């Protein structure tokens, strides 16, 4: 019977291999939270089961956007090379060839990136702490200090409690927990077996912004009852051979919605009542943010950050805040962006305004267009300067263009736009507002002295005057609108510095400057 089973199994394997050999496309799902280095699919002998020399010489020939995957040359194992993100790219269509296969057969692999609701970690600015200067690994990123009648005492430090304490930081909500174990002859002598002391810990805080107060939950016999948390080590409850403690007391300190911009100060009271012991005292409890050494995060500052290209690493959960020009879990995906400066400016008549437009992580062979109120500006003369370069620190290309405009009329104010067309056809644009201060004001707080007597004729003037003013203002606005319509179709003269890209005919850029949805538009 066993021989029959083996024969049937062998036939099923051969059938499966034969069916796979005829396929040229495969589908596989991969969670976006999978770490790089994992094998997500294996081609190998699945597609070439009868090859006497094995798979050999596999290559990814297409579909590997942003270099997310690698393939084993001999094994055909498709390996995750960089972090994935469902919001950025939900799937990849890889094409794989084998140099040794007959006619270099091509395999298509669609890799679907499955969304993980808890990924990527959120960068919460409320509890962000810059890296600390002291590169001391045994100090936690959050330090607590206690001031009471017993004096000053530093708490929540794994240097103090060694391997018997741990800090756990929440992924996104700026929450933290500290677990610390206490065991000694004092507690065994003070707390009779089978008794549960009365314990109360309360705090208040009057800082701005308001801080959530910490809480302490004791587990008086943690050997038998304690929270189900993987951070709590079972080794904490193992005594030395020559000493056995009756009680293993576990303290859970909870800190909710931490604000780390400044130290938090709490006024607290603690009360403990046991059959042989009692205490009631007041104290001041401080929480200070220390941060982790550069490149590390987590409750023990032992996790390694993955942020690249100048990204800031959050000390709580390792989330990355990417600089302009980068995106993704590790800030390793180029994100071309247009940045205008300043974004809003009030000017007076005749004042010169200088607008700067920087395009980051783009092909330096750029096509620029400037526009005012949705109409492209003609560029001639010599006041627009274009810089092209490469930032070695953030590993990004950049192109910077500036224009200087003298605002002499209402028609020269409004919404300025800088647009750039990438070599792949994508359009990136940013807007800036330039407002010209009005020549007329409806506010007149001291037009009429309060001590002057008011006659009936004066009252009539008070009533008729504003009406006449509004009539005059209406005529001026109509005149401006007529002037603007008359100028429609004419381009406002701008100036440039020998840049052939911006001197191309106006008809070439209408899609770049008109008011419509375009890629990576960041509206002010």
TrEMBL record:
GO cellular component terms given for this protein: membrane
Ig-like domain segment(s): 336-418
InterPro entries: Cadherin-like_dom, Cadherin-like_sf, EGF, Ig-like_dom, Ig-like_dom_sf, Ig-like_fold, MEGF/SIB
Full protein name: MEGF11 protein
Signal sequence coordinates: 1-21
Single GO biological process annotation from the record: homophilic cell adhesion via plasma membrane adhesion molecules
GO molecular function: calcium ion binding
Annotated disulfide bonds: 322-331
Statement: the UniProt record of this protein carries the keyword Calcium: yes
Domain EGF-like residue range list: 297-332
Underlying gene: MEGF11
């Amino acid at each position: 019977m066993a021989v029959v089973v083996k024969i049937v199994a062998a036939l099923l394997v051969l059938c499966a291999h034969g069916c796979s050999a005829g396929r040229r496309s495969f589908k596989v799902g991969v969670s976006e939270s999978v770490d790089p280095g994992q094998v997500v699919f294996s081609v190998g002998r699945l597609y070439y089961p009868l090859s006497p020399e094995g798979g050999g010489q596999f290559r990814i020939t297409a579909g590997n956007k942003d270099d997310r995957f690698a393939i084993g040359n001999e094994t055909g194992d498709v390996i995750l090379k960089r972090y994935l993100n469902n919001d950025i790219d939900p799937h990849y269509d890889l094409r794989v060839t084998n140099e040794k296969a007959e006619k270099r057969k091509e395999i298509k692999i669609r890799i679907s990136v499955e969304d993980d609701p808890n990924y990527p970690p959120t960068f919460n600015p409320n509890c962000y702490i810059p890296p600390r200067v002291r590169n001391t690994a045994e100090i936690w990123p959050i330090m607590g200090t206690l001031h009471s009648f017993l004096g000053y005492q530093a708490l929540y430090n794994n240097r103090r409690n060694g391997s018997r304490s741990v800090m756990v930081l929440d992924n996104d909500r700026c929450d933290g927990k500290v677990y610390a174990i206490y065991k000694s002859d004092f507690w065994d002598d003070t707390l009779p077996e089978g008794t549960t002391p009365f314990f109360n810990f309360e705090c208040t805080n009057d800082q701005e912004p308001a801080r959530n107060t910490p809480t302490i939950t004791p587990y008086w016999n943690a050997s038998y009852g304690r929270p189900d948390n993987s951070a709590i080590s079972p080794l904490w409850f193992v005594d030395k051979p020559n000493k056995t403690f009756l009680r293993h007391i576990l303290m859970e300190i909870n800190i909710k919605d931490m604000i780390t911009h400044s130290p938090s100060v709490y006024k607290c009271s603690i009360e403990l009542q046991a059959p042989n012991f009692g205490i009631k005292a007041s104290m001041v409890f401080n929480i200070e943010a220390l941060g982790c050494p550069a490149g590390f995060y987590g409750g023990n500052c032992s996790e390694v950050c993955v942020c690249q290209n100048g990204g800031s690493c959050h000390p709580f959960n390792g989330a990355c805040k990417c600089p302009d020009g980068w995106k993704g879990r590790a800030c390793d995906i180029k994100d071309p962006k247009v940045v205008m400066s300043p974004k809003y400016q009030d000017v007076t008549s005749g004042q010169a305004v200088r607008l700067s437009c920087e395009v980051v992580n783009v092909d330096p062979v750029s096509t620029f267009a400037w526009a005012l109120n949705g109409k492209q500006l003609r560029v001639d003369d010599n006041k627009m300067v274009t810089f092209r370069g490469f930032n070695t620190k953030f590993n990004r290309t950049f192109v910077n263009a500036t224009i200087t405009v003298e605002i002499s009329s209402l028609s020269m104010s409004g919404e300025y736009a800088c647009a750039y067309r990438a070599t792949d056809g994508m359009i990136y644009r940013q807007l800036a507002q330039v407002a010209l201060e009005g020549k007329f004001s409806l506010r007149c707080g001291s037009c009429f002295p309060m001590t002057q007597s008011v006659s009936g004729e004066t009252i009539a003037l008070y009533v008729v005057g504003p009406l006449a003013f509004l009539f005059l203002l209406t005529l001026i606005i109509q005149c401006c609108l007529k002037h603007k319509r008359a100028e429609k179709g004419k381009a406002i003269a701008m100036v440039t510095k020998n840049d052939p890209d911006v001197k191309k005919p106006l008809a070439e850029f209408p899609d770049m400057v008109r008011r419509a949805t375009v890629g990576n538009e960041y509206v002010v």
